[in-house]
């Protein structure tokens, strides 16, 4: 890729970017949110057309106008959010969109071809299994098989480890090494710098639409070095926290059960106590009941069993009543649940206090008071926006997350439910979010941290529990746990740390 320029209204996403990829290598592409790396790869994958610049494959100039054009020249992309049909089999998903078979489907023959390809690259998956029967890691293997079956030689992977357990990450890395040994090339986009150092051969870093480090060797690089290249300053890999001093029980769940949107069991007899001044981390692969747990606590999903907040029953209460009990919610879906995208920064920041003085003046909102509060929060939480009247749909992911955190934290919550609070954020934004969560802990708030990032949970949580198929395992004192053990529980294995019979934070059986 040479001199790639891609403009959007008011923004130059790629400003004369050069990028090269060699045969048989893993080339990591890093950058802050909004640095332009996803735009660059969307140009390569045929989702965007560049305004300037050109692309060469094997020394030959090519014009890529669509994803089909990209696949025709050997380029394919595996997105973070999979595009599979749950009701169909692995083989049927792999065949979708192909021009063969044309008349008669001899599925057995194609199942054998898929099985042979899977064996060749260590992608263990049953060709006859339905997609809905597969784990997240297995579904990712199907996406990779789709590209390999189409003959791609260059695979672009966007945040491929975001939803995987540690054991699944190890398996993915073995697959990538098998692919590069076979002559394939990988573009690896990730915010997890330790994983980048472990898997990449070379690294390119982007900032504000330009390349600031082109194809540097990964050997000898450290996560700290890469973070400085990404954000222009030193970033703490772990934020210091003081010893936990748990207070009274703020949240108590007892034998809670709930169904998901399909009417299937999502929570199966979940019991948990969370105390003031502690962070309880809930680990798990996506789809094991974590989202439903957060929704039950925050009044967004009906349930059976007992939910108490500060000693008062809260099961099946409205979200408004839960908010009045002192609960803050940082949801997984920032756009659909956490914000009103078409409203301004000001409107979104005052959303929990528009009935209260000084924002409320009788039955109307005082615009001057609302703007004053919004300006202060914008500065205090470093929300990068042209004006406080900008619609929040125009904010980057990191700035939208800061806005949500500002609104929720400034309500001085008794209990905070934070779901995937740093997903998709760069290392600088992640550091800021972690500091804010620890400040609330120091202020005496109880926090439930639901995350698929084990490093995040191990770095912040005082106690850790794992959700698998709707059941809660633990919690265990953080100092007794390790990545391997938690990872085993996340994929349905068995593990118990030494001293797990009594948790450090509560002194009671988990």
In words, what does this structure look like?
Helices cover 31% and strands 24% of the residues. By secondary structure, it is an alpha/beta fold. Strand 7, helix 6 and strand 8 form a beta-alpha-beta unit. The chain is globular and about 70 Å long. It starts with a strand and ends in a 20-residue tail after the last helix.
Query: Could you tell me the strand content as a percent range?
Result: 15-25%
Low-confidence stretches: 500-510
Helix percentage:
25-40%
**Overall strand count:** 22
Distance between the termini: 54 Å
For the largest sheet, list the strands in their spatial order: 6-7-8-3-9-10
Q: Figure out the total of helices.
A: 16
* Cα gyration radius (Å): 24 Å
Q: Specify the structural class.
A: alpha/beta
Average per-residue pLDDT, rounded, comes to 85
Note the overall shape. Answer: globular
Major β-sheet annotation: 6 strands, mixed
Question: Tags for this entry?
Answer:
alpha/beta; 6-stranded mixed beta sheet; 16 helices; 510 residues
What layout of secondary structure does this protein have?
Blueprint: E1 2-8, E2 11-17, E3 26-31, H1 37-44, E4 52-57, E5 60-62, H2 67-72, E6 75-78, H3 90-95, H4 107-121, H5 136-149, E7 154-158, H6 166-181, E8 185-189, H7 193-199, E9 202-207, E10 210-217, H8 223-231, E11 249-259, E12 265-275, E13 279-283, H9 290-297, E14 304-309, E15 312-313, H10 319-324, E16 327-330, H11 345-349, E17 360-361, E18 364-365, H12 367-380, H13 397-409, E19 415-419, H14 427-442, E20 446-450, H15 454-460, E21 463-468, E22 471-477, H16 483-490
Parallel strand pairs: 3-8, 3-9, 6-7, 7-8, 13-20, 13-21, 16-19, 19-20
Antiparallel strand pairs: 1-2, 1-4, 4-5, 9-10, 11-12, 11-14, 14-15, 17-18, 21-22
Helix pairs in contact: 7-8, 13-14
């Amino acid at each position: 890729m040479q001199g790639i320029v891609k403009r959007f209204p008011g923004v130059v996403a790629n400003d004369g970017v050069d990028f090269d990829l060699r045969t048989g290598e893993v080339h990591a592409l890093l950058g802050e949110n909004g640095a332009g790396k996803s735009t660059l790869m969307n140009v390569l994958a045929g989702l965007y057309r560049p305004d300037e610049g050109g692309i060469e494959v094997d020394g030959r100039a090519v014009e890529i106008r669509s994803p089909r054009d990209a696949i025709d020249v050997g380029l394919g992309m595996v997105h973070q959010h999979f595009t599979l049909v749950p009701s169909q089999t692995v083989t049927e998903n792999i065949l979708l969109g192909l021009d063969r078979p044309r008349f008669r489907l001899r599925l057995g023959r194609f199942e054998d071809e898929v099985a042979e390809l899977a064996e060749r690259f260590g992608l263990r998956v049953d060709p006859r299994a339905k997609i809905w029967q597969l784990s997240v890691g297995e579904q990712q293997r199907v996406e990779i098989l789709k590209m390999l079956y189409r003959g791609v030689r260059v695979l672009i992977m966007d945040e491929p480890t975001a939803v995987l357990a540690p054991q699944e990450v190890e398996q993915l890395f073995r697959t990538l090494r098998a692919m590069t040994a076979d002559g394939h090339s990988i573009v690896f986009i990730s915010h997890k710098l330790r994983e980048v150092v472990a898997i990449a051969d070379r690294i390119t870093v982007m900032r504000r639409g330009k390349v600031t480090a082109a194809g540097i060797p990964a050997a000898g690089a450290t996560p700290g070095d890469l973070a400085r290249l990404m954000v222009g300053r030193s970033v703490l890999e772990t934020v210091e926290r003081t010893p936990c001093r748990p207070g009274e029980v703020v949240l108590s769940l007892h034998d809670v059960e709930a169904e998901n949107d399909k009417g299937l069991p999502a929570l199966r007899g979940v019991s948990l106590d969370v105390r003031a001044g502690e962070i309880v981390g809930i680990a798990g692969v996506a789809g094991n009941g974590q989202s439903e747990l957060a929704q039950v606590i925050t009044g967004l999903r009906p349930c059976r069993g007992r939910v108490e907040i500060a000693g008062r029953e809260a099961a099946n209460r409205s979200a408004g009543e839960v908010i009045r009990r002192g609960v803050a919610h940082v949801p997984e879906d920032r756009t659909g649940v956490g914000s009103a995208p078409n409203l301004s920064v000001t409107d979104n920041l005052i959303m929990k206090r528009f009935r209260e003085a000084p924002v409320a003046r009788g039955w109307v909102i005082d615009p001057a008071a609302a703007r004053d509060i919004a300006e202060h929060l914008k500065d205090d939480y470093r929300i990068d926006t042209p004006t406080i009247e900008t619609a929040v749909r125009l904010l980057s992911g990191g700035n939208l997350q800061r806005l949500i955190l500002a609104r929720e934290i400034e309500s001085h919550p008794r209990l905070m439910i934070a779901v995937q609070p740093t997903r998709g954020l760069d290392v600088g934004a992640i550091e800021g979010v972690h500091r804010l969560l620890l400040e609330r802990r120091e202020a005496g708030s109880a926090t439930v941290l639901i995350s698929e990032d084990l490093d995040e949970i191990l770095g912040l949580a005082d106690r850790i529990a794992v959700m698998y198929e709707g059941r809660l395992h633990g919690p265990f004192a953080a100092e007794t746990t390790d990545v391997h053990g938690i990872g085993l529980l996340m994929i349905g294995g068995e593990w118990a740390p030494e001293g797990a019979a009594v948790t450090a934070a509560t002194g009671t059986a988990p």
